[in-house]
Amino acid sequence: MGGNGSQRGFELQLGMTTESENPYASPAIVVTPDVPPPKVEALETEEERIRRLHLSVETSIRTLGAVGYILGVLWGVLALSFVLQPRAYQFLVDAALWSMAAVGFFAEGHALRKLSQLAGNILAIAACLAIIAILCVILWTGATPLLISVPIAAYPIYLVRSKKGQFVFSQEYAKIRQQTPYMVYRPQAVQWTPGGALLILFFILTVILVMLLRY
Question: What's the DSSP call for residue 23?
């Protein structure tokens, strides 16, 4: 009986060791359901949120300012070409008109790049006059295909007179820009397309205007 008791005690001890204290047992694996980790969103200030919502419109307006720079350079080259003529004194009027156009476009482009409210108003007025000029040409010549240029000329009006456009020109937005200088939006091709179309349109209209003033 002593042997049986010893054997039973050994079995009980082995069983306890196997179930609870066996150093050779595999570690327990806890299976948890597939739960995605919580998303940690960066904190955004109110100024950053407002700037983000208006950054696309701001960039479009600045893109039109770049168009003004290009037009200013083009008119400057044309004015210089008149000055370099053999008998330059005969082209003083032409050179003066082209120079005025160059300075005007360059100054307007610079002011738009700075988001000047006055520049936005001047751009809207110039676009309205361009639409009137286009319609007059269509009525005079019957060139109905020119109607396609009306929406192009109307684009700056929509841009600067929209709710977001007016806010971009405000003093409040200027303060927000000063507080968030690190936020930059690179213009996409879709934003340069209206600018390129306006570049061609204003070039043609300015040539017509200068010719009318000259002759």
Answer: T
Distance, CA of 25 to CA of 19 (rounded, Å): 9
d(CA 137, CA 155): 20
CA gap 204, 71 in Å, rounded? 11
pTM exceeding 0.90: no
Q: Check residue 25 and report its DSSP letter.
A: S
> How many angstroms separate the Cα of 74 from the Cα of each of 16, 54, 113, 172?
95, 31, 18, 35
Domain map (residue ranges) of the chain = 53-214
Q: pLDDT tens digit string along 11-34? A: 444 444 444 455 555 554 444 555
Cβ neighbours of residue 53 under 8 Å, at least 6 residues apart? 164
Phi-psi region of 153 (alpha: psi -120 to 50; beta: other; left: phi over 0): alpha
- If you count them, how many residues does the chain have? 215
pLDDT in tens, 160-174: 999 999 999 999 999
* CA 215/CA 207 separation, integer angstroms: 12
Cα of 210 vs its chain's centroid, Å? 32
